[in-house]
Design brief:
The chain is mainly alpha-helical. It is built from 5 helices and 3 strands, in the order αααββααβ. The chain has a 3-stranded antiparallel β-sheet. The chain is rod-shaped and about 175 Å long.
């Protein structure tokens, strides 16, 4: 029995020894500097070898550059067009303003000259004194560039024969409209070759 007990103890001892060997970290007996060792790592960049780049990749890059260049050209082209359009619009607006200003100036000048003609005719017109109501008669007068009265016609009667006849008599006593003498031919043809004149019974 003693031998059996001793054998059991030996077996237990052997098993414990094996367990200790398997589980114990023997690195604690190694010097600290030998246990921990740092391996430095560096990122190395290599120059790009254009010749070794796949052809497809180079083509994509070239196409991208071409597209960017085309876009830039398109933008520059649009800017140039916009600038030309802006310059054209500005010049057109300026011409329109000048033309409008000139037209307004001509209209004022026409009004002034007709007012002068009206004033001169009124100075020799013997207006009927018995007419107290507001009436008027309108005539169309045709002139020559020299200012000579070629013809005149009643186009709107006042409704009073005496009044209309007095206006006709005043026009008959004038042979020339001196206020148009010396006008530029184009300006005369547009404004004074034929124009209307109104005779009023009262100043309105």
């Amino acid at each position: 029995m003693t031998n059996s007990f001793i054998g059991l103890l030996n077996s237990i001892f052997v098993h414990m020894l094996l367990f200790a060997i398997l589980t114990v970290d023997f690195s604690i007996f190694v010097p600290q500097q030998d246990r921990i060792k740092t391996i430095p790592v560096e990122f190395v960049t290599f120059p790009m070898d254009v010749e070794n780049i796949p052809k497809k990749t180079k083509n994509i890059k070239n196409e991208s550059l071409k597209n960017n260049f085309k876009k830039k050209e398109s933008i520059e082209g649009l800017k140039a067009i916009d600038k030309k359009q802006l310059d054209f619009d500005s010049k057109k607006n300026l011409k329109d303003q000048i033309a409008e200003t000139k037209l307004l100036k001509q209209k004022r000048e026409v009004q002034i000259r007709i007012a002068l003609i009206q004033e001169r005719i009124n100075s020799i017109w013997k207006k009927p004194s018995l007419i107290n109501k507001n009436i008027q008669a309108e005539f169309v007068i045709n002139l020559a560039p020299s200012g000579e009265i070629l013809s005149f016609d009643l186009i709107s009667s006042s409704g009073e024969k005496v009044f209309d006849d007095s206006a006709l008599a005043a026009l008959s006593n004038i042979s020339f409209i001196t206020e148009v003498i010396g006008l530029e031919r184009k300006y005369f043809e547009r404004n004074f070759r034929s124009f209307n004149l109104v005779f009023k019974s009262k100043n309105q």
